[in-house]
Amino acid sequence: MQQASNRYIILFAAAVCLVCSVFVAFAAVTLKERQDANAVLDRQKKVLIVAGLLEEKAKVSAGEVQTLFDESIVPRVVDLASGAYDDSIDATTFDQQRSLKDPAMSKAAPENRAGLTRVPLRAQVYHVVSDERIEQIILPIEGKGLWSTLYGFLALAPDTTSITGITFYQHGETPGLGGEVDNASWKARWPGRQAFDENWQPAIEVIKGLAGPPAEDPYSVDGLSGATLTCRGVNELLHYWLSEQGFGPYLERFRSPGSTA
Question: pTM score, two decimals?
């Protein structure tokens, strides 16, 4: 049996790689619009879930998610340094994660304990509205856990301190341990807790062991067994985004009497 020459093998492998790369590039280009639409839809669904407007495992169509989101949620873009709204940017299409890759839209993170290396100059917040009144404010949050970056949303009442919900929708923490940050029963322990103390300093903490009821232990949340470092990461990321470096200026503006932030 005649063996193929090395030249033939190299050329054949190169031709296969070229054809495959063309197919991959074609698929990436043609599916990009659909991928972007699915990413927006997924983000809208997570916002509805943390707002308590959609059950976590509810089976709903894309159209139903879009309708509910349009009826109940108003996205806004906020300048993090001043806390003011930036209406020069379309909040319906603004992608905060994508802005982190744009030097004009982001900066190196200040020293922090949340494991952040780069932060956006502007961030997207969501208002949950009913009868033209803001019922909740939803803030995007992220930071390092034990093995991964945790991405989530924190929902606050209009007083900007009463927590109404939290969710972590993307992470790579250990299943059964740190991965329990997206366990529904753990997330149910957050509503009613207070994000800030009486001096408007971030005060909410995931503690070791069990916390008391919100009325008696407003700044504490039950720890996750075997997930000390993940819980520490949750604390650090919450304190960062609630601080002056995160959404602090915006929340201060929001709660000012007569302010439209």
Answer: 0.86
